[in-house]
Amino acid sequence: MTDHRLFVTWRHPDGLIHPVGLLTQRVSDESQVFEFVYLKNAEALDGFPLLPGLPDLHKTYEDEELFPVFRKRQMPRQRPDYEEYVETLGLDVETDPFEVMARNEGRKMTDRIEVFAPPRRTESGNLTALFFARGVRHRDGASDAITGLLPGDRLTLVDERSNSKNPRAILINTRNDEPVGWMPNYLLETVHELRGLTSDHNIEVTAEHVNPPEVPAYMRLICRLSAPWPENYEPLSGPEFQPIVS
């Protein structure tokens, strides 16, 4: 049986994004089952409303069907614009819907819930993660800079210690120092940890998939984080990512 995991997050009204749950798809040759548990961080998070249909912080939820709160984040394959939509994610129509949700981060305009896939280990033993550049519409010139990118172009990371919301924020720039957005909050600690365990020049961010200006700003640029996987290192293993129920 193969497990595919997505962390579930909640965006606080102040704009910061907090991990609150873990969604797992377990797949075998004969069947699949979905599991959801809340994280310890959800217990301590002021103002967090529990997810619709998942009202018990201390319960492990299991079902052969994806829970409705997540299923509504998947575009039906029957829609005539489905192929065009998955192409904006750098995927194709045959991609498993769970992977599509991992790539689009489960965003909906009607609530504050998102999902993301944890970094994975490649066959060569390196760490890799895909993510959207955040805050594109809030950076002057970012849209134009993204338009000039090609898949594979190297990007640079710049600490933004003056950021009033998060002094550990990291800006993403082109190699010509043109801004294209920010690293998502959920990957910040991973990048900072990797910096302490390996050399900065071993941490690489590249443009993975570039969408045209008519695509919503938050989907303009998919980036890839690549780095060596340090010995005995486990990303996203801090207390805020631990399930309430083991």
The amount of helix comes to 10-25%
Indicate the low-confidence ranges by residue numbers: none
Report strand %.
Answer: 25-35%
Number of strand segments = 12
Count of alpha/pi helices: 6
Mean pLDDT: 95
Q: Reading side by side through the largest sheet, how are the strands ordered?
A: 6-7-12-11-8-9-10
Cα(first) to Cα(last) distance is 19 Å
Count of the domains: 2
Q: Helices and strands: which structural class?
A: alpha+beta
Largest sheet: 7 strands, antiparallel
- Principal-axes shape call: globular
Features:
single chain; 2 domains; 7-stranded antiparallel beta sheet; alpha+beta; 17% helix; 246 residues; Alpha-Beta Plaits
Commentary on this structure:
With 246 residues, the protein is an alpha+beta fold. The strands form two sheets. The protein has a seven-stranded antiparallel β-sheet. The chain has two domains: 2-118, no CATH class; 126-228, Alpha-Beta Plaits (2-Layer Sandwich). The protein is built from six helices and twelve strands.
Please summarize what this structure is.
With 246 residues, the protein is an alpha+beta fold. Helix content is 17%, strand content 30%.
